[in-house]
Amino acid sequence: MTKFVTGGPDGDLGSNEVLLGEESIVGIVDGSGVLYDPKGLNRDALLKLCDERTMVEHYDGPLSDQGFMLNVNETNFTLPDGRVIDSGVKFRNEFHLNPMVKADYFVPCGGRPESVNLENVDKMFSEDGSLRFPHIIEGANLFITEPARNVLEDAGCVLFKDASTNKGGVTSSSLEVLAALSFDDVGFKEHMAADAEGRFPAFY
To answer: Using CA atoms, how far apart are residues 123 and 121, in angstroms rounded to an integer?
Structure first.
């Protein structure tokens, strides 16, 4: 199986998606740019990025003749197919909508809210009308709008909604915010903060 991920190996969700999965990852989009190879990225090189919690711009694995790393700072970058990309930032922001990327699974672990909406959801389909990503598991909250979800599901996409797949993260964050609001500074440090050796108190 193949997988495409937004959110890089420097983050919790993106790194765990690489570490725990066994699919062939064809692309990762993160803050540094787009790392893509339709023949699959080198797993050892990806694991190294996860271990070091660094972005895909530091990928040092091999790439096929169709693979590339396009940094957000790039301008007038020539892709392997000959197309010239004027803006690395724009290419990165819209890569999940690019017809060149297809995978069995799409796992957005980062990205802007409403990255897929009614105005662009048509770009999640190939020219023949088939889904570019038949399975979508939303790790990032609010990546896909509800109306766009309906379009994808009506077309047969198996879509796991953010409210279900990322509920543990949301719950944990909410409890941390509640603790910060409830404790004074001394109490928060005593009950919530790690000591110099990285050990957390029992309350945490």
So the answer is: 5
